[in-house]
Design brief:
heterotrimer; A alpha/beta (about 290); B alpha/beta (about 350); C alpha/beta (about 475); A: about 290 residues; alpha/beta; about 40% helix; about 20% strand; B: TIM Barrel; globular; Aldolase_TIM (chain B); Deoxyribose-phosphate aldolase (chain B); deoxyribose-phosphate aldolase activity (chain B); schiff base (chain B); lyase (chain B)
Chain lengths: ~290, ~350, ~475
Amino acid sequence: MSDRLAVRKTYKLYVNGAFPRSESGRTYEVTDTRGHFLANAARASRKDARDAVVAARAAFPKWSAMTAYNRGQVLYRVAEVMEGRHAQFCEEVAAGEGLSTSKARAAVDAAIDRWVWYAGWTDKLAAVLGGANPVAGPYFDFSMPEPTGVVAVLAPQQSSLLGLVSVLAPVLAGGNTAVVVTSRERPLPAVTLAEVLATSDVPGGTVNLLTGDAEELGTWLAEHADVDAIDLTGAPAGRAMEFEREAAGTVKRVVRPTAAEPDWTADPGLSRMTPFLETKTVWHPIGV
Amino acid sequence: MIGMTHVLDPDALPDDARALMAPLPPYDDVTRSDSAFRAFLHGLPGVDQVGAEARVAMLGTRSIKTTAKAWAIDTAISMVDLTTLEGADTPGKVRSLAAKARRPDPGDPTCPQVAAVCVYGDLAGVAREALGDSGIHVAAVATAFPSGRASRAVKIADVKDAVANGADEIDMVIDRGAFLAGRYLDVYEEIVAVKEACARPGGRAPAHLKVILETGELVTLDNVRRASWIAMLAGGDFIKTSTGKVSPAATLPVSLVMLEAVRDFRAATGRQIGFKPAGGIRTTKDAIKHLVLINETVGPDWLDPDWFRFGASSLLNDLLLQRQKLRTGHYSGPDYVTVD
Amino acid sequence: MTSLFEYAPAPESRSIVDIAPSYGLFIDGEFVDGTGESFKSVNPATEEVLTEVSAGSGADVDRAVAAARRAFTRVWGPMRPADRGKYLFRIARLLQERAREFAVLESLDNGKPIRESRDVDVPLAAAHFFYHAGWADKLDHAGLGPGPRPLGVAGQVIPWNFPLLMLAWKVAPALATGNTVVLKPAETTPLTALLFAEVCQQADLPPGVVNIVTGAGDTGRAVVEHGDVDKVAFTGSTEVGKSIARAVAGTRKSLTLELGGKAANIVFDDAPIDQAVEGIVQGIFFNQGHVCCAGSRLLVQESVHDEAIASLQRRIGTLRVGDPLDKNTDIGAINSAEQLARIRELSDVGEAEGAQRWQPACDLPDRGFWYPPTVFTDVSPAHRIAREEVFGPVLSVLTFRTPDEAVAKANNSTYGLSAGIWTEKGSRILKIANQLRAGVVWANTFNKFDPTSPFGGYKQSGYGREGGRHGLTGYLKGATHS
């Protein structure tokens, strides 16, 4: 054992490509599953959520206008950078979720592979979800998927990395920007993921990660008029219906939580991308 | 590349002719050069074919019944340029056509007479004599009708011959070859020259000039709009769709675009230009569709034989059959109208 | 020979329709009396009472949902998909055969011109059934994920602007995918839905597959909130759409919403101007402007504003306003006194806020609900008539200078249903279409619809699509298409 005193990391929020503390100054204690102190995480406030939405909105034009090929490469780059921090993620996942080393490694492997999977989707979506419509008249008519806009994500409470990546990557693959509230009790892999995002090619503001309480922040995000969609997967039990009602006020697209957290190792198909894609249909006459 | 030439050109315009033939303001400078004219014509608003077709299809659903139909039929008859343009035309054929023009329905004196009889220039004199003081005009096709492929001198001689034979109206063809080759100023200058050749002696007004675009050879509606503007700027009194020798001839979308052209030209210059669809209009239904098109595109100012004509031959008998049906309440038959 | 060309009246005969003095609900294959208070359906062109219609009570909705559930479980669900398709083909043919009857009845009940009900509403409704009939036995090949399954009972609530067509948009995909239906037509336009019920009988559609429960908002709420409904589909106002989204929150119900709009119709200086003018007119005056995707905001490039408006006004002057049953009528009656009051109110606000109101000289009938085609110029984005859906024949004209400004103004709305672009430049069309936040973009055309073409909105114009492959997903479990 080295007698060197370790330099501990300060876990902060990730907003607009920077790592601020919560404007509220609040933090909360994060422990491992046995109750040992791990870190003090920033506890995001409604104003942090507000700032995150502003950042996500500002980032949307650039991220959504990127070519699908380019967006795919950016997402693949996230996997590359994650790979370099593999050990760190394993450690945080093992501590936070109380997993064995091998199970933690499997979760991290799957999380990295999920980025790769979604990276490959970006330039397939338009072909799979869009196409030409054979209308009965002299018109060329085609439909294509487009991102919904700013998506608020209440990330899963249990699966702190694989679950997080499984709800975040599909939002990004479609060209949306995201405001994510991480698992309350297990936020540390999310903060490390933020560091990965910051050092990969994902433009600042495209992803904003808020550690803290989905119960507290969910209402603000569900009611926020500049949020276009909300994924309630990690909504605390008993609050999802309320959030969905609040989201109705601005006709948000809503993904409801399932009774129990999904099996994140399963093939997600398109099910987490299509809720955050709009279909645009364009008509033009065919003449000389 | 060997261009199309006019080896015989004794009436070549004098150098100062450009000023004389300048179009009406505000367009008096658009013909100052080939490039200026091209820029002007290509700066006209485009025509979306599908939209134009949809518009005429919608107008085609107008239901013209009872009193409106009676009015439309009589109006249409009065607008007919009763036409024979065959190699086999003879003085006898033209005389019988003239008789029909004066009394389209021999059994019904209330039936209006037609607007004009349209023949080849060499028979204009026969038509003139047969129509006498009926007020029915003699229209003659000229300028190497229908192809227009002759030297300008020949075309001008053709026009002068027809005018000398008594034609009140000259139906010329534009040089489609020049148009499609992009030599718009040539097309324009030729119309100006023909217009000059329409002069009549003795202080009489010049023969009216109808300019046939032969839209079936221009193909696109953008071309139809450009050719319409060339003809109007050059002093044509009417613009006319077709010779009747090329298919398609007077389609409703073409008529729509040409009517929009005369509408816009009057709005800009104050000068009203007439319109004549010709070829392919055979039934009362076709004729009424055209009247509706006029009514809802340019308005009632054009619902007059001075401003609108049908170039047709078989149309007249269908109008007469429908007229008889309206008057008697039962359907008529071909033996109840005259063959010509 | 110089008199004006006055079109003589050309009324479509109404003798083809036979309206009973009263109508019940259509539940489990039979017409039954409703237990709610009945209401009158009025011809908006004359204010004549056409008939009395039962209002469905909560108990009636219970019976309808129970019938739909039974049919789903016992008949329609287990049926061979090819046979489901054949029923839909039958319905499509019956609609074609009885097209004139449907058209006349629609114009009587709704007030829309017979030309539109005859040439648009009814043929498109038949086309929707024909199109979806073919899907019934091909869902495995629709690219919607493995083994798509129906949801069950669909509760559907539709508006009064296209009564039969909206019914077709709702019922055809629901049935093709194996669901059964409880449909509530709009209070002011129930008659073609009830005639459609007769068509279901003529097609020998099994009882309970389609149930039609007439009534007002309370009946609709009972349908939407019913515990045994698996799917809710709604077309109507954004306000009601929000309340429905609230009502289904926390349930298992799948929801699609097709709500309001305030579409920008963008005219560039190089537009094919005559067709653009037609498109503007079609965009806002089609169906008296009672169209969620109406092009109610004209954005015209400032350099061509004056000539475009002059052309537009000249064209509007030729519109024929009057008897909906006259075959030459272009603009019919406003659907209800209530809607007329709203149009008047917002128009008055427009004038009060400083916009210039223009209306052509036109004689309106003495009885019935009428509003002349109206154009507001000098409208600024801050005016209410530039932001709120009027749902009437009222056009707001705004200007722009550059493509960026056009896009910014077009997108400056809480709605996002449709938009129009008029320019001869191809690359500009694609760029602008890409930037517009709207579900349907018509370039050099407007207000075109087709069963193969997905329709639906961005933002507060709703979610889900109707038509095409995309429209099937709202009625299937595990369908991963949007």
